[in-house]
Write a structure and sequence with these properties.
- By secondary structure, the chain is of the alpha/beta class.
- The strands form seven sheets. Strands 5-4-17-16-15-6-7 form a seven-stranded mixed beta sheet, with helices on one face. A six-stranded mixed barrel has the order 21-25-22-24-23-26. Strands 11-10-9-13 form a four-stranded parallel beta sheet, with helices on both faces.
């Protein structure tokens, strides 16, 4: 497109949703010609209300970053060089084809990162990619994050993707563990302007209690902060449950006929008295009993546990006790308690409870026999699957928007394993610590060159909200949907030159066919030809999105529901449309075979034996334990090439309590060595009263100091890689989740 046409179409203010984290804040992007000149919060967005964090304000810098790849790279004579798109896909066809011919499909691993859920096209096309790979070796960010919640949701109410979310705008008492939403902006909870929402809590008489080994930014704003030893949340939560039973405070409310396993829960926690767990977790008896009574007595209360409580040795057991607490206090699926979202792209199930239930362990990993959970293997098992010889050894990988060398456990081992792969395709916008090993890199377009709709995060939103935006700029290359389609077609054996329209049309046909399937209770008297005509002028992703919108619970059913939603209707509301708060969806949403909340499924009861054995024989507590931390200006491993976000004093320091520092001879600003079972690193010391004695903290996602990196700003602010210390030999056994917190370490002063 000529420059004057680009300028004419782009200049002005464009309203979009920020794609950089789960908060989904509305942005007002001011553009002059082909440049972003300013990004502000959209004051007219009814969900985010003008809120914006430092990351969102740099979206223009990300778009214009000279290190962001605009075209593919192909490895030639050991070096990544620029190539055409056709050359890149031809190289993929040849490289993967050679591996498959010699070693079969089980030699391939597919790895997906968090940004896959932040964009529209990947959310729609990742399913076909998974199927086309046809390999059991599937890894995602879930097993370094939230897999315990998936497992608990699947086993207790039958749907692994239905998460209980605190109804923060209406709760009276919020208990938060392992979460720091003033920095993360929310996690498995889409609630833009979290600071504003927390301010409103005390104004209506509400109370916030934060349980954390560090007095985090959120804990500093709480009515009460409770220090707890890393990894022991499960013992304290079990003591809360035990107190409810002991003091007759259990109240199931309207779910009493729909709960199974109550006696098993009572028996499981019987030994976990406040007195028994106090020396293990460091929380005094009176505080435990007071909090149990507060949860039971509040008009509406919610218990919210996140990354810090999931990425530990007993992550699944912790998520289980969190869910049990919400149910036993009568705060599940009620206003002000924890509720589940209703994205407008979904259809509401208002039928009878019951379904097919949930299964895990349908296949197992090759080396150590880890059961699949949600179709995935543990991220912590990736290196052993790449290194161990034999049939099924991983020899090729497709990585999509992920940097496992800096996010999975045991960084050095993974770095070596990726360097020795036979073939590696990376879908990424940077040459980072992982993609520097790739044979082909396919960069996605800038987010400002793509259609925008938050499909994934609305599944966990505290309100039903919808907002759609056209691209701000003309694409410099193929669309993200085209790139996914071409990769899928190569994997299916249809060739590097196959037209991506083949897959685009196929997905639309499948979606329409499923919609009209009589066995699926098709809405209204929909007609295939009518639907296809209505979609005709739309792009591939718009067609799939419009189908979801028009047949969801707020949809117009192609004109059959007056006032309903369609893509065209949403386009008339550039600031988005708010459809209201969460509403009660249970018991109809129960999909267990029994049609009940299965409080004590066998998998969790068996796993509880590990927790009980630790109660009987607690670990020695004289060493230091390492936990992670996040920063508002950072997002995992990939926002470190934006000067505005990384400038200033280094944030990559070891936080330690002053008493521990004095005992170990550590001076503020000096360097120390931190050692774990699997690795060591050197880092600057920063003392802080915010740290619980016996606990130290490092931020996650840094360590940009390796050869081959093409991220100039990140390299100047390299920091250290905390996952050099995380142990791939220790996982939460039930879910396969990595253990990133509560890692035993030794800290030694350096001259």
């Amino acid at each position: 497109m000529p420059a004057d046409q680009t300028q004419q179409s782009a200049t002005g203010i464009h309203f979009r949703t920020c794609p950089l984290c789960e908060a989904t804040c509305g942005l007002a992007i001011e553009v002059e010609g082909d440049r972003v000149v300013r990004v502000r919060g959209d004051a007219q967005d009814p969900f985010s209300r003008g809120f914006i964090c430092p990351k969102g304000s740099t979206l223009g810098e990300l778009h214009h970053d000279p290190d962001r790849l605009r075209g593919p790279l192909v490895r030639r004579d050991g070096r990544l060089e620029e190539a055409t798109w056709d050359e890149a896909f031809a190289a993929i066809e040849a490289g993967l084809g050679a591996v498959f011919e010699e070693h079969g499909r089980t030699s391939l691993a597919l790895l997906l990162g968090n940004p896959v859920t932040h964009h529209l096209a990947p959310a729609l096309y990742v399913g076909p990619l998974v199927r086309a790979c046809a390999t059991p070796n599937f890894f995602t960010a879930s097993t370094v994050d939230q897999m315990p919640q998936h497992l608990v949701s699947g086993l207790l109410w039958g749907d692994s993707n239905v998460f209980p979310i605190p109804d923060i705008d209406r709760t009276d008492h919020l208990l938060m563990l392992g979460a720091n939403p003033l920095v993360s902006n929310g996690s498995l909870m889409t609630a833009p302007d979290f600071p504003g929402r927390l301010k409103e809590l005390p104004r209506r008489g509400g109370r916030l209690v934060v349980v954390d080994p560090r007095r985090s930014e959120t804990a500093a704003r709480a009515d009460e902060h409770i220090f707890i030893k890393p990894g022991t949340d499960v013992f304290w939560l079990a003591a809360l449950v035990q107190t409810l039973f002991a003091e007759g405070l259990v109240s199931l409310g309207r779910f009493e006929p729909f709960v199974a396993g109550l006696d098993e829960i009572r028996e499981s926690v019987a030994d976990f008295t406040p007195e028994r767990v106090a020396p293990i977790c460091g929380v005094d008896v009176e505080t435990t009993r007071r909090e149990a009574r507060a949860l039971a007595g509040a008009a509406a209360a919610a218990v919210y546990g996140r990354v810090g409580s999931h990425t530990v040795e007993f992550g699944t057991a912790t998520a289980w006790m969190t869910a049990v607490l919400n149910l036993l206090t009568g705060n599940f699926d009620r206003s002000g308690g924890v509720m589940t979202s209703s994205p407008i792209t979904s259809r509401i199930d208002d039928g009878e409870p019951g379904g097919g239930g949930y299964r895990i362990g349908r296949w197992k990993s090759r080396v150590n026999g880890h059961p699949e959970v949600n179709g995935e293997f543990p991220a912590a098992s990736l290196a052993e699957e790449m290194e161990t010889p034999g049939k099924g050894q991983i020899r090729a990988a497709i990585t999509v928007a992920t940097n496992p060398v800096r996010s999975y456990p045991n960084s050095e081992r993974l770095d070596r394993a990726f360097a020795h792969l036979d073939f590696h395709v990376a879908f990424d916008i940077y040459v980072n610590e992982t993609t520097r090993h790739a044979d082909v890199i396919l960069p996605a377009p800038s987010t400002l060159e793509e259609e925008a709709y938050e499909l994934t995060f609305m599944v966990n939103a505290i309100r039903s909200f919808a907002k759609y935006a056209k691209p701000v700029f003309e694409r410099e290359g193929p669309s993200e949907a085209d790139l996914f389609a071409r990769l899928v077609l190569v994997l299916r054996g249809e060739g590097a030159t196959a037209d991506p329209e083949i897959l685009h049309d196929e997905l639309v046909e499948e979606a329409v066919g499923a919609l009209l399937d009589p066995a699926r209770d098709a809405p209204g008297d929909l007609d295939r030809d009518e639907i296809m005509r209505a979609l005709e002028a739309l792009s591939p992703v718009e067609k799939l999105l419009d189908l979801k919108l028009r047949t969801g619970w707020q949809g117009d059913l192609f004109g059959r529901r007056s006032g309903g939603v369609s893509l065209a209707k949403l386009a008339e509301h550039p600031h988005g449309v708010d459809f209201g708060p969460m509403v009660e969806r249970f018991p109809a949403r129960l999909k267990t075979e029994s049609g009940k909340f299965e409080l004590a499924p066998q998998v969790l009861v068996e796993d509880w034996a590990r927790v009980h054995s630790r109660l009987e024989a607690p670990l020695a507590s004289d060493g230091l334990l390492l936990i992670g931390r996040r920063h508002l200006r950072s997002n995992n491993t990939w926002m470190h090439n934006i000067e505005t976000l990384v400038s200033g004093r280094s944030r990559c320091t070891l936080l330690i309590h002053p008493g521990d520092a004095e005992r170990l001879g550590l001076a503020k600003g000096a360097f120390c060595e931190v050692r774990s079972r699997v690795g060591s690193l050197r880092v600057e010391v920063e003392t802080s009263e915010a740290m619980m004695p016996g606990v130290v903290s490092l931020p996650h996602g840094w360590g940009h100091d390796v050869a081959g990196l093409r991220m100039e700003v990140a390299a100047r602010h390299a920091g250290v890689a905390s996952n050099l210390l995380t142990d791939d030999g220790v996982i939460d056994r039930a879910s396969g989740n990595a253990v990133l917190n509560g890692i035993p370490v030794e800290v030694v002063a350096l001259a």
